[in-house]
Specification:
single chain; 20% helix; alpha/beta; two-stranded antiparallel sheet; archaeoglobus fulgidus dsm 4304 fold; 9-stranded mixed beta sheet
């Protein structure tokens, strides 16, 4: 059984020395806006070193079936004043960006896919914090391109690639999650719609 609406998210970071408009502008089937993103715990923007603000380009694609070749809707946002990277605490930087982007959606998705890990062995990862942000009501699937030494992700081979993707999950059996990622559209290692959300996030960071 597939979810009624699935959302895949990706975030790219850049140093922003330019002035950007804060008014929303259209982006294909969704929208784009500039918003502030503070610390996950405090909710307040952090101080930044000289040389420009650290900003993020967050993107989401929505689709109804894992086998879909095209998105049903797309959203992106330029997010200013993101927290600095802290080793082992990646979620502090990325989670607020995803949550702010979800605020643009008409309603919360039925399932979410992130670029990264849900769990890091016995430690929670970005996906687990996202899962808990919605009270454990929305399943989260993590798709990582690199192996993390303590994360027992299920290896998924796609197409002719000999390099696996690593799938973890919360709120859904990890083997079922892995099957869904394997069944996603596209002949390449990274599924079509995950490549699409990555492209949208990269475009915003240019």
């Amino acid at each position: 059984m597939t979810a009624a609406m699935i959302a895949a998210f990706d975030v790219h970071y850049f140093r922003d020395d330019r002035e950007r408009s804060t008014s929303p502008s259209p982006l294909g089937r969704g929208q784009r806006s500039a918003i502030n993103c503070g610390s996950f715990l405090s909710g307040k923007p952090r101080a930044f070193r000289a040389g420009g603000l650290h900003s993020a380009s967050a993107a989401a694609v929505l689709f109804r079936e894992y086998s879909d070749a095209e998105s049903a809707a797309e959203y992106s946002a330029i997010i200013r004043e993101v927290a600095h990277y802290v080793a082992g605490q990646f979620y502090r930087r990325e989670l607020p960006c995803i949550l702010r982007l979800i605020e643009q959606l008409d309603e919360a998705p039925d399932e979410m896919v992130i670029d990264g890990y849900v769990t890091l062995g016995k430690k929670p990862g970005l996906g687990q914090y996202l899962f808990e942000s919605f009270g454990g009501r929305i399943p989260v699937v993590g798709v990582a391109k690199s192996r993390y030494r303590t994360a027992p992700g299920i290896e998924v081979l796609r197409g002719r690639s000999k390099r696996p993707l690593y799938v973890t999950s919360a709120g859904i059996d990890p083997h079922l999650a892995a099957e869904r990622i394997k069944a996603m559209h596209g002949p390449h290692r990274v599924p079509t719609l995950l490549r699409r959300v990555d492209l949208l996030a990269r475009q915003g960071a240019r």
